[in-house]
Design brief:
Layout (H helix, E strand, L loop, with lengths): L4 E6 L6 H10 L6 E6 L6 H15 L4 E4 L8 H12 L8
Parallel strand pairs: 1-2, 2-3
């Protein structure tokens, strides 16, 4: 019943050794991986873009990546849409 793996990584710290091990484990699964770079609101715009580009380069072919902040709502709709696709929900923005 696993449709995908949503991995939350602190954008301020970047992809760590534990994250890499989890991604290695996930590589054996025929399921998509999506990384939320959380706490994006605690970085300035240039830092956030730099962290996103770095993570995208590092994770290319293994995971999709986005900036996210629960506090500021950054990336919330994009994350909901990703989950909706995995779970085959028709209108993710209605709830």
């Amino acid at each position: 019943s696993l449709r995908g793996l949503l991995l939350v990584i602190d954008a301020r710290r970047g992809v760590g050794e534990g994250d890499e091990r989890l991604l290695d484990w996930a590589a054996a699964l025929p399921r998509p991986v999506h990384v939320l770079l959380s706490k994006a609101d605690q970085l300035n715009g240039a830092e956030a873009r730099e962290r996103l580009a770095g993570a995208q380069g590092l994770l290319a072919g293994r995971a999709t990546t986005q900036l996210f902040s629960a506090h500021a709502g950054t990336g919330l709709l994009e994350a909901r849409r990703r989950l909706a696709v995995w779970l085959e929900i028709k209108n993710p923005g209605s709830s």
